[in-house]
Amino acid sequence: MIQPQTLLNVADNSGARELMCIRIIGAGNRRYAHIGDVIVAVIKEAVPNMPLERSEIIRAVIVRTCKELKRDNGMIIRYDDNAAVVIDQGGNPKGTRVFGAIARELRQLNFTKIVSLAPEVL
Amino acid sequence: MTPRVPSAIAFRGLASLEVFNRRKSKKMVLKTELCRFSGAKIYPGKGIRFVRSDSQVFLFANSKCKRYFHNRLKPAKLTWTAMYRKQHKKDIHAEAVKKRRRATKKPYSRSIVGATLEVIQKKRTEKPEVRDAAREAALREIKERIKKTKDEKKAKKAEVVAKTQKTQTKGGAPKAAKGPKLGGGGKR
């Protein structure tokens, strides 16, 4: 349940550390974003000497949420933090590595590159 | 996409088509998992899965277990959890009884010094009557031997006594006097 002003961890090595959600991409006045949704975010904290800098506006896809993800087979998964992966306009990740567990839903939403880089897909 | 109906069913009609479809439907896989907190079985569609930031997965049977976990309660201290029961050794007698069944030791066939394999096997297969008869024969032999030695000893003693009597006829009176006195003492 990510909404504007939500701070998210960054789960890749693109250079950003922390993002703040600004807007949810998709249908009109959407209230909340879940795993697999693309958001517009501003970089609040960045690693020095990297291509991405603080207060840059970028797009990211949410990969982990504290709010439970409900699957069709009745499985409920809850992560420990809110995290996103920085992507470009085409949906390809800007970083080369991904950290932490990734939800399987991303594969169906055509984020296959992120899923393939993930150390663990749950 | 309709499945191809075999001709046999097509002949019989619609009712058997239902049976055919039902048999073709997939059976759900029923694999229960164990709750990390209480040790209870979690059936598919139930329970909550929690992925910690270090990517360790915890399965909880219900929100009670989940709540206790997040409140940092220890399952080993709660009486109803499997961990507590294991720690306090509840229900362990049933398991121990099951495990006691061990294979009986079989007699090992190998020749040793003093008896070759054939001799051992022959002795093993001897019938009890034969063994008893053999034992009796042995005992009888021993008894006869003992008897023989006893007889010999008696004969020797008799000889010695006869000899001494001949030489000690003078000293026979004190012996005789002692005799009845002893007997009298014993009688009282």
Automatic annotation (TrEMBL), chain A:
GO cellular component: chloroplast; cytosolic large ribosomal subunit
The entry's keywords: Chloroplast, Plastid, Ribonucleoprotein, Ribosomal protein, RNA-binding, rRNA-binding
Presence of the UniProt keyword Plastid in the record: yes
Database matches in Gene3D superfamilies: Ribosomal protein L14
InterPro entries: Ribosomal_uL14, Ribosomal_uL14_bac-type, Ribosomal_uL14_CS, Ribosomal_uL14_sf
Subunit structure: Part of the 50S ribosomal subunit.
Protein name as it appears in the record: Large ribosomal subunit protein uL14c
Annotated organism of origin: Musa beccarii (Banana)
UniProtKB/TrEMBL annotation, chain B:
Keyword Signal recorded: no
Ranges for domain TRASH: 35-73
Presence of the UniProt keyword Cell wall biogenesis/degradation in the record: no
Cellular component GO terms held in the UniProt record: cytosolic large ribosomal subunit
InterPro entries: L24e/L24_sf, Ribosomal_eL24, Ribosomal_eL24-rel_N, Ribosomal_eL24_CS, TRASH_dom
One example GO MF annotation: structural constituent of ribosome
Biased composition (Low complexity): 161-180
Annotated segments matching region Disordered: 145-188
A Pfam family of this chain: Ribosomal_L24e
Keyword vocabulary terms for this entry: Ribonucleoprotein, Ribosomal protein
Residue spans of biased composition, Basic and acidic residues class: 145-160
GO biological processes: cytoplasmic translation
Similarity comment text for this entry: Belongs to the eukaryotic ribosomal protein eL24 family.
Name of this chain's protein: 60S ribosomal protein
Organism: Musa troglodytarum
